[in-house]
Amino acid sequence: MKKQYLCNIHLIKTTKINNINLSKAMKRITFFMLLLFATSTLCMGQYRKSVSILGDSYSTFEGYLHPDTNRIWYWREPKKTDVNSVTQTWWHKFISRNGYRLCINNSFSGATICHTGYRKEDYSDRSFITRMNNLGCPDIIFIFGGTNDSWAKVPIGDYKYENWSKEELYRFRPAMAYMLSDMKERYPNVELYFILNNELSDEITESVKNICTHYGVDCIELKNIDKQNGHPSIKGMEQITEQLEQHLKL
């Protein structure tokens, strides 16, 4: 009987100890879960969407291009426009005003979308379809091109949406379609926008709109942009930013 009594006492003590240990363990788990939740919430609150740009001279600025060997139009010492600060560029204004962050700006002055350039030279070393693979891992991509294709009067070609030959990529329509097709696959769940300059040829303007519609890419058509030597001035850069914000309802 005494032995049974001692066993019961021992069992009660053991149960109390186990309950205490379990209570401490539950408190630790609860604290850990709360800490994890708070950290996750803080991280989500601090996350900002990133923006990459695939562009031409309109989106360049000294010291802000990747790779840094890309040709530049806009410099700290202004040459042919009044823009002399990166904060005056359309993309810097858009990113800073709307809480985004810059991922990669792969813009190249004079670049065409297709492989044909000025004087019918081979621009495959700088074309949009050559550089489109080097944009990092952004949330949003702005494609701002077609201006040099229009100015250089590159071959237009036919609308074609698959099985492009190398030769066809030297013509605008096939190259434009190839670019959007590849980028839709290469950057899933990324917001793609094509910015269409004003004052381009009717063929280029119509082609961009039709191909963007085919691939479901939002085309932002610019209106009445102020320019100096064919390039956005400080005023023009602000107009581009405002039109993007209006289109995206920011």
Spatial gap, N to C terminus: 82 Å
Instruction: Please summarize the sheet with the most strands.
Output: 5 strands, parallel
Uncertain spans: 5-9, 38-45
Structural class: alpha/beta
Strand order of the largest sheet: 2-1-3-4-5
Strand element count: 7
The number of helices is 7
Helix/strand order, N-terminal first: HEHEHEHHEHEEEH
Structure description:
The protein has 250 residues and is an alpha/beta fold. 42% of the residues lie in helices and 13% in strands. The chain is built from 7 helices and 7 strands; from the N terminus they run H-E-H-E-H-E-H-H-E-H-E-E-E-H. The chain has helices spanning 2-46, 90-97, 128-131, 147-151, 172-186, 202-215, 234-248; strands at 50-55, 101-107, 140-144, 191-196, 218-221, 227-228, 231-232. The strands form 2 sheets. A 5-stranded parallel sheet has the order 2-1-3-4-5, sandwiched between helices. It has a two-stranded antiparallel ribbon with strand order 6-7. Helix 2 (90-97) crosses helix 7 and helix 5 (172-186) runs parallel beside helix 6 (202-215). The longest helix is centred in the N-terminal third of the chain and has 45 residues, at 2-46. The protein is globular, with a radius of gyration of 28 Å. The model is unreliable at 5-9 and 38-45 (pLDDT under 50).
